[in-house]
Amino acid sequence: MTQAFGHMARTRVRTLLTIEGLAILVGVGILAAAFVPSRDRPAAFSEAVFVPTAMILILMVALGVYDPDARARYAAMRERLAVASLFGAAAAYLALYLFSPLWISPLYALAAASVAYGAAAAMRYVVMRSRTLARLQRRLILVGDSEGFARFDAMPGEKRDALRLTLEQAAEPGRLAAEIADLDAGEIVVAASKRETPLPVETLLDARMAGLRVIDLAAFHERETGRVDLANLYPQRFIFMETNAHTQIGRLLKRSGDLIVSGIALILLSPVLAGAALAVRRDSPGPALYRQTRVGLRGEPFEIVKFRSMRVDAEASGQPQWAGEADPRITKVGAFLRRTRIDELPQLWNVLKGEMSLVGPRPERPYFVGKLSETIPHYAERHRVKPGLTGWAQINYRYGATENDARVKLEYDLYYMKNASLALDVYILMKTARVVLWPDGVR
Asked: Nearest CA to 284 among 221, 215, 332?
């Protein structure tokens, strides 16, 4: 995986992807050997094998087949795998039909989906039963102090094991080298609680020159969780970020993509937009569209456009409030629009106008921005990039309805700012499909 997908580049995920990808490739290859006419070989045979395999694997990643919950729950994995296999095979069939002289039957696409599903599901079952991934997990050495060790243990997500050495132990001649050799370690995480804490520089440099990766706890936290640790954030981490997304060329590419995609989407989705508007009008009194002031780039206010999903008197008191669980203000049609994210589609117009981007932090209302800026450090930093229709926080966290939710989502938003790239934007757009199909925590 590229650095843009570093949040996914873990040994267990790479191993799973390789095992299941090879299983699908072999299964579809056997299928193609039986059904692709011999006169069409070898180029057509390759297309009939590699195109479905590639499309299915892309959708498996996009739909969360390798997300932590799907790795932990076999039923969740199979549900997402079924959708990825079916739609991936359908996309492959369409691509071959439009761009290849090879003609294959729709039944071949259906068979390829079935073979891919069976192969990947079988491999996942075997791996989960044999605990292969547990043995292939990375071997870490944690060098730090007690406070740094506590921060490591408190990191959200799955449990992480590491051999722990204090700063004094790591400074002992030959100690770190012996532990690296004994453990066959591949990475050292430096977990000093204070930036000014003296480090065993000579020992760590020796390890680095020997080929080991040496990383501080803040960077490790970001890579492992996809979030910035607000409690230990200092401004220099943003000043020295390596992304090219905020250069003039990067902004031009992003804006060009926004214009092309939003323009095409508005045309293609016009029947859906018209149907949703009609449904809203017939379901409850009031207009179909709802305009609301939000805070955008550099803190400038603008009006977003949404399909109305609440009663017109939802805030009759004049006091803004979070949407709650089973909120009685939400209409029947509004609940469906929120669950499927159709209520957000009119914001494609905001993207076309340049007030928003396809990907970025979700824009918040001025009232909540003022409140949250008083209590959450660095909250205003999220306004240094253009707000988005979808974002890194939206595909990783539930709908925010409390101040703590806003804090966690800010950690995701700041991670996106530090690691923004065209590749990450494409990944977020693909993963948004999973949120639409499995809308956990929608309100």
From this structure: 332
- Residues of the chain within CATH 3.40.50.10700 domain(s) are 138-225
Confidence (pTM): 0.78
Give me the architecture of the 138-225 domain, per CATH: 3-Layer(aba) Sandwich (3.40)
Q: How far is CA 403 from CA 269, 310, 323, 369, 410, in A?
A: 34, 22, 13, 11, 10
pLDDT, tens only, 84-105 = 999 999 999 999 888 888 778 8
Residue carrying structure tokens 């909540």: 368
Q: Among 49, 21, 23, which residue's Cα sits nearest to residue 35?
A: 49
310-328: pLDDT as tens digits: 888 777 666 676 666 667 7
Q: What Å distances lie between residue 97 and 51, 106, 174, 227, CA to CA?
A: 12, 10, 63, 42
pLDDT score recorded for residue 26? 96
Q: Record the tokens describing residue 33, joined without a space.
A: 């050997």
147-152 LR contacts (CB < 8 Å, sep 24+): 147/193, 148/191, 148/192, 148/193, 148/217, 149/191, 151/191, 151/193, 151/217, 151/221, 151/229, 151/232, 152/189, 152/191, 152/217
Q: In the chain, which stretches have pLDDT less than 70?
A: 1-11, 37-41, 131-138, 158, 235-236, 238-242, 316-319, 321-326, 400, 439-443
Interval 415-437: pLDDT, tens? 999 888 888 898 898 888 877 77
